[in-house]
Specification:
mainly alpha
Length: 64
């Protein structure tokens, strides 16, 4: 009984460790999104912003 419990704990631990890479990737991706985000107001001021993007962002501000 004790050996079976020990093997179950080890197996669960090994399966859990396989997911650590996934979580690091997910956190890294979220950090990249946060680092690349810009306030809409600054995007609208920038003259090289595409007209269609400018229109969408203006609509978002109006909805808010």
């Amino acid at each position: 009984m004790r050996n079976a419990l020990l093997m179950a704990v080890v197996a669960a631990g090994l399966c859990g460790c396989a997911n650590i890479g996934y979580y690091f990737q997910a956190v890294g991706g979220q950090m990249e999104i946060w680092n690349r985000s810009r306030p809409i107001e600054k995007l609208l001021i920038y003259e090289r912003t595409d007209a269609r993007l400018r229109e969408r962002q203006t609509m978002i501000l109006n909805v808010r």
